Amino acid sequence: MTETRADTDRLSADLTGMVAIASINPFGAPPRPGHREAEMAADLRTRLEALGLETGLDEIAPGRPNVWGRLKGQGGGPTVLLAAHLDTVGIEGYDGALVPRVEAGRVHGRGSCDMKAALACYLETIRQIRERRLTLSGDVLIAGLIDEEDQMLGSRAWGRSGQRADFAIVGEPTGLAICPAHKGQLCAVIRTEGRATHSSRPELGINAVEHMAEVIVALSELDGCLRRDGPDHPLCGHGRFSMNVIQGGSIASAIPDWCELEVDRRFLPGESPADILADIGRRLDGVMALRPDLRVSLSDPSLLAAALDTPVSSGIVAALRRAVETVTGAPARIEAFPGATDAPNLGCPAVICGPGHLEQAHSLNEWVEVRQMQLAVEIYVAALADLAG
Ligand SMILES: [Zn+2]
Asked: Which stretches are transmembrane (predicted)?
């Protein structure tokens, strides 16, 4: 295990400063008070400029910019992107979410773990490169991206037209495990249509809610089929399916003429969204074949996030593996990340590896250990030196 030199005071100060800026994702609405991604971007830009980096802002949606900073290398080596999202989930029911506090070696507050800790680590990584007088052949890019918690507009735009990199590290909370793969996510809305009538004479109507019940029964086999008979991936396991939001009807005294069910399909690298929709569509056709009066439709994806499948043989995985083993003195864990992230959108081989644990992310008591952040900085510095030293 190597000595950690990353400065805990600076890490805590940067992180608490950023947690205090409420950058809650607006989930499709125009940014409102409390949805300060732009302020987060401006704040991060100021911090990057204070470190002497070349910086820029790219407005992705009105009032919602990505921000980046570049530490120039000597030339000739790979450019490594350290990416993190600027937004957080909401704070409903979370007392003190925006009043960051440092207690018993942990920084508490919304966004502390997911994932402003990574941004604080990236800033300290730059300082450590300077203080240790490391010369890198390639550039280090730091990116703060909007909208990861919703449609991933920031990383999608980065992949299309952002600064180019050869490798990327995304410091989502993995507990410092190395995650070169994750499933993708496809959500879609199933709608049944019926005929409304007064509920004193139900036989005169067609009950869309009752018809949805038949759809639900038919689809309730799908997750088991995927786990039993579906394809699998060495890190990601099997695809998964769940039915998670339902609404229908408008008043209890009327037979409902509509019902909508939003479903969530987690898919493996290599599975195509078109095939997934076609599979669900065939199952709906099966229900309709048994019930000719049942009218059901399937929407286009309401959410589609790509799967990640960076080869374990990639240079970025090898560099992180050596870095983790040198820094922690323990074997590196190579595993799939549980959720979908910005990583597959960045336009280069990307790996997720960062401080903190996913159990704290999105919770009503979010925190990250400063010690994890210190170790993350050592790992990032060692991986950068390995790739471009
Ligand atoms: Zn996150």
From this structure: none
Q: Clarify whether residues 155 and 192 are in a common domain.
A: no
Measured in Å, residue 183 CA sits from the centre of ligand 1 at 15
The 8-class DSSP code of residue 150 comes to: T
Between the CA of 84 and the centroid of ligand 1 the distance, in Å, is 8
In degrees and rounded to multiples of 5, residue 171 shows phi and psi of: -85, 40
Q: How far away, in angstroms, is 37 Cα from ligand 1 center?
A: 14
Q: How far is the CA of 192 from the centre of ligand 1 (A)?
A: 34
CA distance 83 to 67: 10
Compute, in angstroms, the gap from residue 175 CA to the centroid of ligand 1.
Answer: 13
Structure tokens at 205: 């109507």
* Distance in Å, CA 206 to ligand 1 centroid: 43
User: What is the secondary structure of 335-367 as a DSSP string?
Assistant: EEESS--SGGGSSS-EEE--SS-TTTTTSSS-E
Q: Rounded to the nearest whole angstrom, what is the distance from the C-alpha of residue 343 to the centroid of ligand 1? A: 11
Give the tens place of pLDDT for each residue, 317-371. 999 999 999 999 999 999 999 999 999 999 999 999 999 999 988 899 999 999 9
Q: Point out the residues of the chain with pLDDT beneath 70.
A: 1-2
C-alpha 248 – ligand 1 centre gap (Å): 32
CATH of the domain at 383: 3.40.630.10
Same-domain check for residues 134 and 35: yes
Angle at 357 between CA 363 and CA 49, to 5 degrees: 95
Measured in Å, residue 87 CA sits from the centre of ligand 1 at 8
Q: 88 CA distance to ligand 1 centroid (A)? A: 7
Sign of CA dihedral 153, 154, 159, 160: positive
Domain that holds residue 199: 184-305
3-state secondary structure of 72: coil
Backbone angles phi, psi at 29, to 5 degrees: -80, 160
60 C-alpha vs ligand 1 centroid, how far in Å? 19
In a domain, 106, yes or no: yes
